[in-house]
Amino acid sequence: RRIVVLISGSGSNLQALLDAMEHDELGGNVVAVISNKPDAYGLERAKEADVLTEVVEPSKFRHFHDERDRELYDAELIRVIDHHQPDLVVLAGFMRILTKSFVLRYHGRLMNIHPSLLPAYKGLDTHARLLADSGTEHGASVHFVTEELDGGPIIVQAAVHVLPDDTKDTLAERVLSREHLIYPMAVRWFLDGRLQLNDSGLTLDGHAL
Ligand code: GRF
């Protein structure tokens, strides 16, 4: 089973996937890591693990108005991804909003991890927003990607308590350590054929989630 991972930055979630792969705990292989940023540290992590890397830079697609450029970029991304014939495409800190055509193409085999207990705190700056609201419980969610931003069916979540002296950085760090546990787990469920997304919803081992 083949996995393509999309990143934009540090790639600590990618590292968790690579570590699981090394221990034969992922249910498949990361065959390529694709970044929209040439300096993403995650690319080094991939090279260290002997995984092929590619960069697809948005700057090459700034010709028309915003929507058209986005379509062209995503078409190129699809071309690069499909070359690797993935069973699953994993977004791991990929900081771009994807077009409808992209999302539809990988329907049911495109996952994302988001640093909040969805449906709460969709979008950016989740840790700071939760603290500003004096939230007491926070966490991370792995979900299938649909057209609705951060709104697809939730596969698994991990919760953390907010501590009195938490800053957005300490909170982010604690949430991230949970992300590293649940993302490889969700990927494995999928690749082992335990997780299915169909018209009636999401099931794990035949039970509705
Ligand atoms: C994580 O917070 C993840 O939830 C979000 O982007 C961040 C990626 O971090 N989608 P990393 O690049 O995996 O370290």
From TrEMBL:
InterPro entries: Formyl_transf_N, Formyl_transf_N_sf, GART, GART_AS. N(1)-(5-phospho-beta-D-ribosyl)glycinamide binds at residues 11-13. Gene3D superfamilies: Formyl transferase, N-terminal domain. The keyword Transferase applies. It catalyses: N(1)-(5-phospho-beta-D-ribosyl)glycinamide + (6R)-10-formyltetrahydrofolate = N(2)-formyl-N(1)-(5-phospho-beta-D-ribosyl)glycinamide + (6S)-5,6,7,8-tetrahydrofolate + H(+). Pathway: Purine metabolism; IMP biosynthesis via de novo pathway; N(2)-formyl-N(1)-(5-phospho-D-ribosyl)glycinamide from N(1)-(5-phospho-D-ribosyl)glycinamide (10-formyl THF route): step 1/1. (6R)-10-formyltetrahydrofolate binds at residues 70, 95-98, 112. Its EC number is 2.1.2.2. Residues 2-187 form the Formyl transferase N-terminal domain. Keywords: Purine biosynthesis, Transferase. It is an enzyme of class 2 (transferase). One of its GO terms (molecular function) is phosphoribosylglycinamide formyltransferase activity. Pfam families: Formyl_trans_N. The active site is at residue 114. Catalyzes the transfer of a formyl group from 10-formyltetrahydrofolate to 5-phospho-ribosyl-glycinamide (GAR), producing 5-phospho-ribosyl-N-formylglycinamide (FGAR) and tetrahydrofolate. Belongs to the GART family. This is Phosphoribosylglycinamide formyltransferase. It comes from Larsenimonas suaedae.
